[in-house]
UniProtKB/TrEMBL annotation:
Flavoprotein as UniProt keyword: yes
Any Pfam family the entry gives: FMO-like
Keyword terms: FAD, Flavoprotein, Monooxygenase, NADP, Oxidoreductase
Highest taxon in the source lineage: Bacteria
Entry's family note: Belongs to the FAD-binding monooxygenase family.
Name of this protein: NAD(P)/FAD-dependent oxidoreductase
SUPFAM superfamilies, A to Z: FAD/NAD(P)-binding domain (SSF51905)
Coiled-coil stretches noted in the UniProt entry, renumbered to this chain: none
Cofactor(s) essential for the protein: FAD
Listed InterPro entries: FAD-binding_MO (IPR051820), FAD/NAD-bd_sf (IPR036188), Flavin_mOase-like (IPR020946)
GO MF term list: flavin adenine dinucleotide binding; N,N-dimethylaniline monooxygenase activity; NADP binding
């Protein structure tokens, strides 16, 4: 007799910021519902456990990167990686979520059976393959590859006698004291690394192909501090959260609608913090409009301070090749280096690389359309989390978790055992992420599509999403519901086709 696999009501994949938040929402809404969290790595925290490079920190304020249900009470609004990791771990421990996590469990595939109205999920653990089943599959695995970052092919790498490091795999033993360091890149990781290394290295050069928009923000939010003193942690957190949402939304909307004005605004801010006579238009004037790519935040202007102190510099040029002692640029100049850090971006991975099938039919993510940016067309009882590109990831992650809980409660009330998004054939498709960052553009063809109208768009407006995801109708015509009994009758009459699935769905 074949032993039946373990069954849980909801299976969460990933024990990072999103997964812990999802579990908290789930068990708060359904204390008696069984769930488990499968985590491929051997530690909780996701991004905040993986990245260990010097100075690693949030690129959003913690009043919006923190969970809605658990106030961030530390003084620092821009927090370092260890503080964020402690916050995630403390959240899990206080709620008992840490006891539900199974480490070293890498999910490889998931197969939905309409006859059984459940998923069979395959995973590996300690080199062995196994399965378990669940009623609802909830991916909180982020959207980039954990085992490797993105590094372009550089000519002459084999000639370089120094050390090349990618921030995603920072060696704990790396000694950069007194060394000449070149950081390739101009994004959030690069602008974090440069000032963190500059205090110890002989000199740090940020080598960029083109500039990014960089905004200095205070490490400590003075308004949040005063509100905590007067109103207490929870009320102050809520007010500060909405204050920061509104400010960031205003900056984003102005960047989209009046880009010329905002380009001038960011340029003037940079001029005020750079040394007199600095070539701001070469090194701090991007060719793209604000928020076509993510805005880089630097706490208390630490990058600008390093440039003023002369411990760091910026070079804007293209790489011709590596040499034995550094990097030769297309301009003919050569940058000497003992260590080169390739802060050149991430490699995205759709749906955690998990292979999905529905009733034996393979699901190719690019052939699906994303419902509300969190479910896939034609895929029942399945959700995933992708955060905002123009605001804190957790703002969207919290809303996705709330919607999943609303959906499960709706299914319980009406006795449904499946919910499947089905787009109107008249809805046309486009890229899921309308974002010009290189790491996004390189991978868009691997991801689900967005639709030409709601609810098939990935929303990027938190206030609007609060209304639609927290309070909008569940039965909106695009999300269809069904019962197992009807499924069997439909398949008996029409055969195991996509049409049969539609017959059973309300």
């Amino acid at each position: 007799m074949t032993e039946q696999p373990e069954h849980v009501d909801v299976l969460i994949v990933g024990a990072g910021l999103s997964g812990i938040g999802a579990a908290h929402h789930l068990q708060d809404a359904f204390p008696d519902r069984g769930y488990a969290i499968l985590e491929a790595r051997e530690a909780m925290g996701g991004t905040w456990d993986l990245f260990r490079y010097p100075g690693v920190r949030s690129d959003s304020d913690m009043h919006t990167l923190g969970y809605r249900f658990r106030p961030w009470v530390a003084a620092e609004a821009i927090a370092d990686g260890p503080a964020i990791l402690d916050y995630i771990r403390d959240t899990a421990a206080e709620a008992g979520i840490d006891r539900r996590i199974r480490y070293g469990h890498k999910v490889t595939g998931a197969s939905w059976s309409s006859d059984e109205a459940r998923w069979t999920v395959g995973y590996t653990h300690e080199g062995r393959a196994a399965t378990l089943t669940c009623d609802f599959l909830y991916l909180c695995s982020g959207y980039y590859r954990y085992d490797e970052g993105y590094t372009p092919e550089f000519a002459g790498v084999e000639d370089f006698r120094g050390r090349i490091v990618h921030p995603q795999h920072w060696p704990a033993e790396l000694d950069y004291a007194g060394k000449r360091v070149v950081v390739i890149g101009s994004g959030a990781t690069a602008v974090t690394l440069v000032p963190a290394l500059a205090g110890t290295a002989a000199h740090v050069t940020m080598l960029q192909r083109s500039p990014s928009y960089i905004l200095s923000v205070p490490t400590v939010d003075g308004i949040a501090t005063k509100l905590r003193e007067k109103l207490g942690d929870r009320r102050a957190y809520t007010i500060t959260r909405w204050k920061n949402v509104l400010v960031s939304t205003l900056i984003y909307q102005l960047s989209q609608r009046r880009p010329a004005m905002m380009r001038k605004f960011f340029r003037n801010l940079a001029i005020k913090q750079l040394p007199a006579g600095y070539d701001v238009d070469t090194h701090f004037k991007p060719t793209y409009n604000p928020w076509d790519q993510r805005l880089c935040l630097v706490p208390d202007g630490d990058l600008f301070k390093a440039l003023r102190a002369g411990t760091a510099s910026v070079v804007t040029d293209r790489i011709e090749r590596f040499t034995a002692d550094g990097i030769r640029l297309e301009s003919g100049a050569e940058l000497p280096a003992d260590i080169v850090v390739t802060a050149t971006g991430l490699d995205l991975l759709a749906l955690g690389g998990i292979a999905l099938t529905v009733d034996g039919r393979e699901i190719a993510p690019p052939d699906t359309m994303a419902y509300k940016g969190m479910m896939l067309s034609g895929v029942p009882n399945f959700a995933f989390t992708i955060g905002y590109t123009n605001a804190s990831w957790t703002l969207k992650a919290d809303l996705v978790a709330e919607f999943v809980c609303r959906l499960l409660r709706h299914m319980d009330i009406h006795g449904y055992d499946r919910a499947t998004p089905w787009p109107d054939p008249s809805v046309t498709t486009g890229p899921l992420l309308d974002f010009q960052a290189g790491y996004v553009l390189r991978a868009l063809d691997r991801f689900p599509k967005a639709g030409s109208r709601a609810p098939w768009r990935l929303g990027m407006n938190y206030a609007q999403d609060v209304i639609t995801l927290r309070h909008g109708r569940i039965e909106d015509g695009a999300l269809r519901f069904g019962h197992r009994a009807r499924a069997g009758a439909a398949r008996a009459a029409t055969g195991p086709t996509a049409d049969a699935e539609q017959v059973e769905l309300r």
